[in-house]
Amino acid sequence: MKSANKMFFLLICLFTLGLFLAFATVGKGKLLLTLFFWVAYVFLVTVAFLIGRKFELFPEPILFIIPVFLSGLGLTELYALQMKQTNGIYEDVAFRQMAWLAASMITVLAVSALTRKHNYEKLARYKYIWAILGMVLLGLTIPFGQSFGGARSWLSFGSLTIQPSEFVKILIVLFLAGYLSEYGQYLKNAHPKWWIRPFKALWYLGPLLFVWIMALLLLVFQRDLGTAVLYFGVFLALIYLVSGRFSYVVAGGLVAAVGAVI
Length: 262
Hints:
The protein is mainly alpha-helical. The protein has helices at residues 2-26, 31-54, 62-84, 93-115, 127-144, 164-189, 198-222, 225-243, 246-261, and strands at residues 146-148, 151-157, 160-162.
């Protein structure tokens, strides 16, 4: 627990340093605004962290600290853009994102409190439902998607615009976790010369590979290659976590290299 406190303190220090550099570069003359921005972030994440620790909502505090660190990094970049703007495009963008951070902190605490006494293994029963739902969400962007920044990965509902791939990230992880918890032992103990019994390998790995390939193909059609790379990394990370065999990571890397060349 002490290590978690130290990491959280380091997070605050890094955010402070990043915000100070942004202020020194583009925020001169806006000291009070910068201080307010710093206080808002530190207050939000500290309160959430302390509540989580007090009520034991975070079994692994690092899983809270890492996203909060990434959020702080993004907020610092948005703050710099907001301070540097000359045409009003980024007006109040950092503070609007801070409001979303506040909403996310409340959501994290609420979900953790409501589910901490429940058995997460029940989610594994619905692994194929998560996979199908994820494919449907990604597929909807092909006929109905809107293009922003070159990627056709957005759905618009009036004034509301969402990116389904953000939700699919969670669904893909749920599917992979459920599937690998059931068949991961095969990956761990699979014979190096799997082609000797290819049908057995396909029986265990077929659904996994099918969902993974379909997700990547849909993302390619969307031209959202950044998310495709992220999915690929999550896939390999979970495979390695379950099997402990680095050869799978090497094979996946080779496949990615061939795909990049093609």
